[in-house]
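PROTOCOL LOG
Step 1. Enter all chains and additional molecules of the complex.
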Amino acid sequence: MTTANQNANLANSERYRNNFLKEVEANVEEGHMVKMCMQCGVCAGSCPLGNAWEHSPQKIFMMIRAGKRDEVLGSDSMFMCTSCYNCMVRCPRQLPITHIMHGLANYAHRLGLAPKGQPTRDFATLFWNNAIKKGRVNELTLTLRHYFRGGLVSGIKEALGMQSIGLGLLLAKRLNPMEIFGGHGVKDLKGFHAIIAKAKEIEDRKKGFTA
Amino acid sequence: MAKKEYAFYPGCSSQLKASASNYLVSTNSMCKTLDIKLTEIPDWNCCGASVGYCEGGELPRIAINARNFAQAETHLPGQDIVATCAACWLSARESKERLDGSAQLLKETNEALAAAGLHYNGGANVRHMVEVLIEDFGYDGLKAPMKKSLEGLKIAGYVGCQTNRPFGIDGESFENPMYLDKMVETLGGEALSKYEQKVTCCGGALAFSEPEKSQKQIRDIVESAYDHGAEMIVTPCPLCQANVEVYQSEINKKQGTKFNMPVVYYSQLMTVAYGGSAKDAALDGQLIRAEKLEKIAGK
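Step 2. Run joint prediction.
Step 3. Record the structure below.
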């Protein structure tokens, strides 16, 4: 955990002491809707990864109200979200559950409390950094970086395991080896990066991330 | 002048030699027949996709979508923004609804856009290509230019998640949307309307990060298509297409199945029905060849 993470974490946990719901409402995307949950459990039964997580959205929302800050922000459940929006369209109270789960994942990630090495946390970080580097996703470098995340040996093994698929995509003109040298991107990269930097600055200020 | 004009947002996967380049090629062929003029939003950028939330956060994600809106408003005024990718459509439309609903968010977003000399006025409408086809042309309008029937083709309509939830196509249910089946029937094919994995999630980005969990989903989706006698699956989403097609060989390897189910886009079916060649429909872009469709295209 970096010092900036730690400072933000300490400052926010101190500021909202004993009221984690308030902290979520103030800092988590769509967090103001958490209190609308009536604990019916439809979300829990609607999730395609229901057998994979420890806490359903329903549980997470009750844990927030019960002040279980460490347990919520340390849960891997939010990273199991495939963004299928099943929970969201079925919620009888119309909570934007998917967005709240995304928001909680982002908050936990930014505070450095999200589970370390969680594969989707790592992949999502890789994805965003890849997309904003040139303004468009570079599918080749994204895939290679993902395979080689655990080092050279495991990377070669994983990439070899997928080589028939890679070759198939290449022959189908759906993979471009030349992307390694740059590939697609936006022309006004400077402006694109300036927009993201400014947006991040505003968001960090509001959510107490600035150290 | 073309019958209809739209500001086109192809998205990262629908670029030349990207994973959904076959979607792009067939969309262009389909639009040519329907006299639709698609003009790319100048210098468009990535929408952030479904996994952008973790590192990207809220405002940066909304701001990059607003950058596309601002570009469309300035350079293609009055035209609806049309996305072919489900995730692009969802991210863009979600961003737009948030911006429409909050003056504060709009102010902050414009503060960010100003860093690149841009401004978003809230004008552009965000739509999916399927909405354009159904709402602006209608099933009869889609039938009119048909040159060949897809008669005899048994097709499982796999709608997936993000063209269905949370927005979906107007008038359709989230649990059992019928539009893809209706499109197949319009083209003369046999829609397997009892296919029960129609709106099952393929695992999305987790196909990369949690392959076992995603492949469990994909197995259900493909297996059910076989159970219903499907000869191919059709989908409107590039990630659904890639996940469901590409990982069949992995599932075969690990689980001893013998999956070999073609997964095509609606735009490929339409291109063939409109008399296009296999090349026009980018059927050479399939990992699992859609031989029956190629045969009709070659007739």
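Step 4. Note key features.
The domain at 147-298 of chain B is CATH 3.40.50.11810 (Rossmann fold).
Chain B has a mean pLDDT of 96.
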